[in-house]
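Troubleshooting: if your tokenizer reports a length mismatch, compare your output against this known-good record of 307 residues.
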Amino acid sequence: MTRAEEFEELRPLLFSIAYRILGSVSEAEDAVQETWLRYEASPTPPASAKAFLSAVVTRISIDVLRSARVRREEYVGPWFPEPLLSDPYEDPERSAELADSLSMAALLLLERLSPLERAVFVLREVFGFGFPEIASAVGRSEAACRQLAVRARRHMDAGRPRFEADRRRREELAERFFDAFREGDVDGLRALLAADVQLVGDGGGKAPQWKPVFLGAENVGRVLATLVPLFVRLGGVVEQHQVNGQPGAIFRDPDGRVLSTWALDVLDGQVQTIRTVINPDKLRHMGPVADTWAALREASQIRRPAD
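Known-good structure output:
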């Protein structure tokens, strides 16, 4: 097998590692590309391509994350990962770990860890790497990596998100939610909200939003009562998808351009959290992005149909 073939076989794994460390599709893709350039330039083939490439992409991702943290401190409003519709890497033996680690809630928890803790946690808990491989990847001793893993696990366990255990029930509730949205059924939407539901938006100061966070069924219900009729009058499209392994949807304008993504946390038969990504910079990997300011103006100018 040639180096290029080996690399392409491992590309899904490398992207999945980088995305979980970075929370960014574009930065993960860049890290994978840089990994290929270093692999191609290495004078002798490594004993294990998987170990070598995983170590390289991890080191690159740690460096990128350290510089990205400064930018995130200056970010306008809540910061969310770039939404990912599907994980390219599959491992039946670790499917639960892979799915849980991909959710917006889990990735936001990872943000609390130091770059080294985050990398160690991802390699150990998500992908099942051994400590000798992890130590080589992050440039620390095995003992230090074990300590980093313990600290990271403690932080993650303390805030671990809870989801409806039955994935089918999650999807069914999400289907009802987005069907009600399409139909303009605000009462139907309200009926699915938990009393302490949160609606949180990541616009990055580059898209219209009333405020970053709405708390409670009454406040979220008011937002939906304003937003849903505007979206329906605009002729927008709600395209149901898995978003970061959770029930969600892509919202598009009538021309098919992406307006936002929504991801739902579902528990006890109710929607507990709605996370929307509106920042156009985080949506470009999904295709053409709409001008949300223009869409909002257009929807506001469309007359309501006569009663």
